[in-house]
Amino acid sequence: MTSQPTSADNFRGIIALLVSQALFVTSDSCVKVAGTALPATQIMALRGLIAVGLSVTVLALTVDRSRWRLALQPLVGVRALLEASSAALFIVSLPHLTLASITVLMQVTPLTITMLSALVFREHVGWRRWTAIIVGFLGVTLVAQPGSGSFSWFSLSTIAVAFLVSVRDLLTRRLDPAIPTAAVTVTTTSSVCLLGFAGMPLQEWHAVSVFPMILLAGSACLVTTANALVIRAFRGVDLSVVSPFRYFGVVWGLVLSYAIWTDVPNILALIGMVLIVCSGLYTMHRETQRFRRSA
Q1: Mean pLDDT of 244-263
Q2: pLDDT, tens digit, for every residue of 27-50?
Q3: What is the pTM of this model?
Q4: Cα–Cα distance for residue pair 247/200, rounded to 1 Å
Q5: How many other C-beta atoms lie within 10 A of the C-beta of residue 123?
Q6: 101 neighbors 211 (Cβ within 8 angstroms)
Q7: Whole-Å CA distances, 250 to 24, 49, 79, 134, 152
Q8: Considering Cα of 66, then 68, then 69, then 74, what sign does the dihedral take?
Q9: Cα torsion 156, 157, 158, 160: sign
Q10: pLDDT tens digit sequence for 189-239
């Protein structure tokens, strides 16, 4: 029988999640700076090589070789393709949007997961959560501000990334539990790296100086560590207590966006950010209530 999470368990989960979100956004900052000197496919390939090396090392040290073949299941391959596609769109969009904007637009993922669960998997979603989804996408409109001088089509690319990530996460729930997490991570990093090399004919690659390479290496290490922390954050904790702290990434994105690029969102964008975060938090709250009732 599984024991109830203690306050210490939840505190550990909160700290791990806070640090992971800071690392994710810091990694995005590294890629955004590197994107001024290198094309997206080259970033995916070079950072991917480092990430593959790290993930393979973790797999070799933590998982028995006899279990590696479990990652050859078709659903794992589909998930890896979704990951590579979302990474490509994200890295292409990153140099053209403020860090704060792209970070907050990615926070619609909980809303799109709920929406896709209802439309594709026919899960029951009540009017309250549908209202939260509508409010969240109203917030997206305020952040993107179509029709204004600040609008960028790359905002739509970021929203597409959020949808792809949502489909990826829904597929992840349906993976065979016997498949080692480290093996899934290797397929993910490998797919992103291979797609980067596949895109080489489409973009002119440049000679890599030391500074961009340091940024990409740092980004790969940060992402690898952040993914490990996310897994740690959600094990043996009360999800309703820990999950809301994922939105710390928005705060950190605002801080780094101002500190590095002196970007300050206008009032409409700030209102949109608040709507996205509040609707996401409310959706999490309703999901938790639904889970407890079914349990």
Answers
A1: 91
A2: 999 999 999 889 999 999 999 999
A3: 0.83
A4: 35
A5: 11
A6: no
A7: 11, 28, 26, 20, 20
A8: positive
A9: positive
A10: 999 999 999 999 999 999 999 999 999 999 999 988 888 788 778 777 776
Question: Among residues 21, 3, 70, which one has the least CA distance to residue 226?
Answer: 21
Q: Can you tell me whether residue 121 is helix, strand or coil?
A: coil
Retrieve residue 289's tokens: 């209530």
Structure tokens at 140: 């997206």
CA distances from 213 to 34, 45, 60, 85, 280 (A): 8, 12, 26, 23, 36
Q: Are 76 and 184 in contact (CB under 8 A)?
A: yes
Both tokens assigned to 174: 């349906």
- CA-based max dimension of the chain: 58
Which secondary-structure segment (H or E) carries 269? Answer: helix 267-294
| DSSP letter (8 states) at residue 107 | G
Read off the amino acid at residue 48.
Answer: G
Contact 165, 79 (CB under 8 A): no
Q: What secondary structure letter does DSSP report for 120? A: T
- Token look-up 């938090």 returns 281
Task: Pick the closest to residue 248 from 287, 288, 277, 283 (CA basis).
Answer: 277
Identify the top-confidence range among 56-65, 115-124, 169-178, 222-231: 56-65
